[in-house]
Amino acid sequence: MKILVLGNGGREHALLRALSRDPQVGELHAAPGNAGMADAATLHPVDAADPAAVVGLARELAADLVVIGPEAPLAAGVADALREAGVAVFGPSKAAARLEVSKAFAKDVMTAAGVPTARARVCADRAAAEAALEEFGAPHVVKDDGLAGGKGVVVTEDRAAALEHAEACFAAGGTVVVEDFLDGPEVSLFVVCDGEHAVPLTPAQDFKRIHDGDAGPNTGGMGAYTPLPWLPEGFVDEVMDRVVRPVLAEMARRGAPFTGVLFVGLAVTARGPEVIEFNVRFGDPETQTVLARLQTPLGQLLADAAAGRLGADRTLEWSDDVAVDVVLASAGYPAGSSTGDVIEGVEDALALEGVDVLHAGTARNEDGALVTAGGRVLAVVGRGADLAQARERAYAGAERIRFTGAQRRSDIALRAERGQITVPERSQA
Ligand code: AMP
Ligand code: GLY
């Protein structure tokens, strides 16, 4: 199989790593890729969000499968253009991608499908936002109803700050979703879907805030781990029954069957799993940990999903170990980022046992040196027999890597390692 991966983040580097372990995968290509992905694939300087350019590249390469990493190409209809051109593609249509692109659409689908989620109001002006804040009370949750790279959501006790965020969205010509606060630990569950059937990957947890102790603004994600030792038994089956299958059926009923990864962001509340959000792609940095543990050949799995032949009884194989990743971000992230800072120590980190380094915002300068080229720069993955060992390895790797202004959290997976994550007691029968 010849596979083209679209994107240039840590998630796409992890996809390439996993695809290259699949004996059925021959050539790997990526567009546009990053400095690290060049080791695993041939890079092509093509805009991943330009449907015509991607179709042109896929044809030129005679790719057997195109795997779309980020949301922007999906929102731009790249999957539709490839399907129309007769190219197999793993990723949802533009119509199905609305589950991520519009939070209001996602709420509408969830309501129609009877999926447990926070009560919400879509607001187009200040008066509506004020009424909704009043209705739901604190903590307040205000979401930009559009793609914001995980940064468009404000969760705050401060009503004035909640209103200020809503006003900023209105001023930019948008609407907001105001919703109930969901109380409970968060889970990222990725489900591979073929339009009709679905198979879940191992659940992971992401760390969204920039600073230790979940302080500071939201980011794309500063670290992750999998599996989750504190998750109630039967949790994934319950999410498949109460969320994934009803949503797949509802999307098919609307003429927008879902093919690709349905990323279900959940809170484990006293009422059971409730949906915080959907994304229509693998999560970053969770994927770097999830795929590190996947033993089932990934290329065949994604090709089967793309072709609608997953079937009802698909199961996946996982290694017994635990994976933790720590993101190294550049100076100024998440408000901005710093480019051109020379990165040292990646080889030293890679030489450690159970450590992998996946590239996100990296590039080569004129001298061929590895430099920062974005907000999230690298994800250092540690694998071990338990959370303590996986964390120790991820942090030992992270400590080997240096660049000016590097930021990282020191508490990724720490509360889980200490057994401090508690799930609210189930309140309903
Ligand atoms: P989203 O972009 O919808 O995933 O929101 C980003 C982050 O905001 C989530 O990962 C949660 O930490 C938080 N969040 C969003 N919605 C809620 C909610 N209804 N209740 C509690 N936290 C939320
Ligand atoms: N880490 C969360 C996301 O990929 O949206």
Gross CATH architecture of the largest domain: 2-Layer Sandwich
The biggest sheet amounts to: 5 strands, parallel
Tell me how many strands there are.
23
Overall radius of gyration = 21 Å
Poorly predicted segments = none
Mean pLDDT: 96
CATH homologous superfamily assignment of the largest domain: ATP-grasp fold, B domain
Taken from the alpha-carbon principal axes, the silhouette is globular
Domains (count): 4
CATH class categorisation of the largest domain: Alpha Beta
Structure description:
The protein has 429 residues and is α+β, with helices and mostly antiparallel strands. It folds into four domains: 2-90, 3-Layer(aba) Sandwich (Rossmann fold); 121-179, 2-Layer Sandwich (Dna Ligase, domain 1), CATH 3.30.1490; 183-306, 2-Layer Sandwich (D-amino Acid Aminotransferase, Chain A, domain 1); 322-417, Alpha-Beta Complex (Glycinamide Ribonucleotide Synthetase, Chain A, domain 4). It has 14 helices and 23 strands. It has helices at 10-20, 51-61, 71-75, 78-84, 98-101, 103-113, 126-136, 159-171, 235-253, 286-293, 298-306, 346-350, 387-400, 414-417; strands at 3-7, 28-32, 42-43, 65-68, 89-90, 120-123, 140-144, 153-156, 176-179, 186-194, 198-200, 205-206, 209-211, 215-218, 223-226, 259-269, 272-279, 322-329, 339-342, 355-359, 362-364, 370-373, 376-384. The strands form six sheets. The protein has a five-stranded parallel sheet with strand order 3-2-1-4-5, with helices on both faces. Helix 2 packs across helix 4 (78-84) and helix 6 (103-113) crosses helix 9. The chain is globular. The protein binds adenosine monophosphate and glycine (GLY). Residues 118, 141, 143, 150, 153, 155, 179-182, 186, 208, 218, 265, 276-277 line the site of adenosine monophosphate. Residues 150, 206, 220-221, 279, 283-284, 286 line the site of glycine (GLY).
